[in-house]
Amino acid sequence: MEDGGPSEEEVAHVSALFGTLKYLYAFSISDYFPRLRGKADFDGHEKKLRTVLEIVRAYQDPLIDERIQVWNTGARTETYDLLDILIKHGSPKLTPNEIKAQIIEIMLATIDNPSNTVEWVIGEMLNEPMLLEKAVHELDHVVGRNRLVEERDIPQLNYIKACIKEAFRLHPFAPFNPPHVSIKNTTVAGYFIPKGSHVHLSRRGLGRNPNTWKDPLRFNPDRHLVKEGKQVVLSDDELKMISFSTGKRGCPGVSLGSTITTMLLAGIIQGFCWGIPGNKSSIELAESNDDLSLAKPLVAVAKPRLPRHLYPRSLV
Ligand code: HEM
């Protein structure tokens, strides 16, 4: 769009991706009675998923085909992004359909947690400006105001990462981890779990457990800061909270997910002075009834704070 905002197709694409995620976490009768799978779509999930996936594919697939074509004609010879790598360096070489499936997976995996986290962090910061000041101070100190934040800055952006980790703890996108099935009888933390059980770990229960976290409902990024010289990491292998989970079925995208989220938050804090809209005294930080995202989308005032030439033309 001319004003730098998303086009109608882009809005529909993102909304369809969130639609797909909704059914990843939803209760479906055929998960518990697999014989029903494919026979009767009792809860209507299959139909709904097919509809949203069609919208996702209608947007993405032509772009992927176009890029494959660019490589086939020899117009591109160097890899610039993940799609180039999937096209060029798959080993064994991936078919167009496999590339398309991988891109759907990556789009789904990278959209909910980073956007939900950043929205909550900015909301919390607007209600407690000291937190925003600390983050801005860190960015001014590490990056300055004459260039944009880059991935090489991430190891030093420990306060920004602590804010993200605190949002993962207090405001996870989904109340539960995706379900796991135990493959043998086992005992965890004193609980007997018979073989074949569906196990749902509560992200909210762990993150807000008063036996682990002091003052658990307070958004306090300082609790994640570590000794000077050590870096804050967004994963928690001890499972005191769930960010990326852990073990064989833990998230394989820790590094990419940490980078995306940190760059997103650091970029918008560095690039803009954030404020509460004039007609309000604070941001309403209520959870939605469907998931744990903000009930109402965050509305905030953003004013550029860096030299003009650092912004895309459409923004200034
Ligand atoms: C901030 C970003 C992200 C967060 C917080 C996050 C978190 C999680 C969590 C909590 C799980 C469930 C693990 C479990 O069941 O124990 C998961 C699974 C998964 N994630 Fe991520 N993730 C992020 C980004 C990514 C990215 C960037 C990718 C790949 C490009 C990715 C790929 C996956 C996949 C494939 C699984 C399923 C693993 C399996 O079932 O074996 N995630 N993620």
From TrEMBL:
Its cofactor is heme. Keywords: Heme, Iron, Metal-binding, Monooxygenase, Oxidoreductase. The keyword Heme applies. It comes from the Eukaryota. It comes from Artemisia annua. Heme binds at C251. Transmembrane segments: none annotated. Belongs to the cytochrome P450 family. InterPro entries: CYP450_AA/FA_Hydroxylases, Cyt_P450, Cyt_P450_CS, Cyt_P450_E_grp-I, Cyt_P450_sf. This is Cytochrome P450. One of its GO terms (molecular function) is oxidoreductase activity, acting on paired donors, with incorporation or reduction of molecular oxygen.
